[in-house]
Specification:
With 326 residues, this protein is an alpha+beta fold. The chain is built from 11 helices and 7 strands. 68% of the residues lie in helices and 7% in strands.
């Protein structure tokens, strides 16, 4: 297919993104079992960050390659001449890249619309109250089904059903509210949106489900630990609250951009066991994981900037684009 100058740039960017993303996505998929085990040995908050970063890395690095290498090298070195023909393989990769972004953007947009609708419904059905000892208000909905969740991305609100209020003691209720506020501190709903925006390995195949499930599990553990704050009494209160809410029955599934207290019933026994055995929780104050992660991030960022700034890099990138366009 013969395309003009800017159309070729768009196709090359899409094709380059797809090829880099697929390659890195396959590597991440192969590393997932090791990463999940490594994250499990860390404090949950750092393990969750590791898994989230690994999940977002293929898309982030592919965007960096397109924005930092492909586009500058094309604009700097490609002459603005007559339209040029693009090969079938390049066009196919560009279409696959377009499909990958189209699918992920549609998925994220659908989740945002549903989240906005859910927040509006909760606001209409709820009564805003301030619980004892809490600075911020919560929304209480008149429902017999158990519901405790943090809903919304940029201005999240805690929603609690009347059944949960009636079933929990004041201390248990305070524990579950602290748990949901911990999700807000960790920006877990925003992280869920980023996961929806990040394309899968292939346009219609995620390939990252095990990684995402492990992240969700550790994010719940991290919220439990922050809510308990190393206090045995708070741990027992949260554990008993989890059991009591579970006995109220099953709740309606939470929206994609909401974190529910009982998000994964299969993980309930593990969460309760961790809360009843504080010694098993990774609460080391001098954890090395944050230092190691920060150091690795700084070194990687510096290496990438140095690579892009080198003139040889742009010429090499342009040669790759010339090969890709054939």
């Amino acid at each position: 297919m013969i395309l003009p100058y800017l159309a070729r740039l768009v196709c090359l960017c899409l094709a380059a993104f797809f090829l880099v993303h697929v390659a890195l996505g396959l590597v991440v998929s192969l590393l997932t079992p090791w990463a999940v085990r490594a994250a499990g040995r860390m404090a949950p908050v750092y393990g969750a960050r590791l898994l989230l970063g690994l999940r977002l890395f293929p898309a982030a690095f592919a965007i960096f390659v397109v924005a930092g290498l492909c586009t500058p090298s094309y604009l700097y070195l490609e002459p603005q001449g007559a339209p040029e023909e693009m090969g079938v393989a390049c066009m196919a990769a560009a279409l696959a890249g377009l499909a990958a972004w189209g699918f992920s953007l549609a998925r994220a947009s659908r989740a945002m619309v549903r989240s906005a609708r859910h927040i509006r419904e909760c606001r209409e059905r709820s009564r805003e109250i301030r619980l004892p000892g809490e600075r911020n208000t919560v929304w209480v909905i008149e429902s017999a089904a158990p519901c405790v969740m943090l809903t919304g991305v940029f201005r999240p609100r805690i929603v609690v059903s009347r059944a949960v209020l009636a079933a929990l003691s004041a201390e248990q209720l305070s524990a579950v509210i602290r748990h949901e506020r911990a999700h807000g501190v960790h920006r877990d709903n925003l992280n869920r949106l980023l996961l929806l925006l990040a394309p899968g390995v292939l346009p219609f195949a995620s390939g990252f489900r095990k990684l995402e499930h492990a992240w969700a599990r550790l994010s719940e553990w991290a919220a439990d630990d922050r809510a308990a704050a190393g206090n045995t009494r708070r741990s027992l209160s949260l554990a008993s609250a989890l059991v009591r809410v579970a006995r109220l029955g099953s709740a309606a599934p939470a929206p994609a951009l909401a974190t529910s207290l009982m998000a994964d019933g299969a993980d309930l026994s593990d969460r309760v066991d961790r809360l009843l055995r504080p010694a098993h929780r990774a609460t080391r104050r001098r954890d090395r994981e944050p230092i190691l992660i920060a150091t690795a991030s700084v070194l990687l960022t510096g290496a990438l900037i140095a690579m892009v700034a080198h003139p040889v890099t742009l010429h090499s990138a342009h040669e790759c684009l010339e090969f890709l366009i054939q």
